[in-house]
Amino acid sequence: MKKLQFDPDEIMMINRKTGKEIDSVKFLLEATKDRWEKVYAEELGKFIGLAGNTDSKILAYIIINRDNNNLLHGTYREIAVKTKTNNSAVQRVFKVLLKEDLVRKVRSGCYMVDPKIIRDGTNYKGIVTFKLWEDL
How far apart are CA 39 and CA 4, in angstroms? Predict the structure, then answer.
């Protein structure tokens, strides 16, 4: 399944009932025919002590760009360029995520997102992903 291309600077959402604008970084939704996955990047950020649009952009990028094994490929510099942030902001976010054990470093430029937080796929795929996580 191809991941959605998400640029929070280009997307604006409006609550149809209230007419209120919703920051697109706060709400990520990927839907397929028989399943869905929803993550509130800003709320996750607040939970782990990160706040602000820059941190939310980086979290959103991590969530959207992880592969089906929950791996994120990219150096801090590459992530900074793709999120239109800076290297120190990416380092700060990853420092918190690593400290809280929400991501683990697999090797240089490759991180795994905790499958207890977010993952997709079948139950079998989930078991394999959890095993990979535990082996890190």
Answer: 14
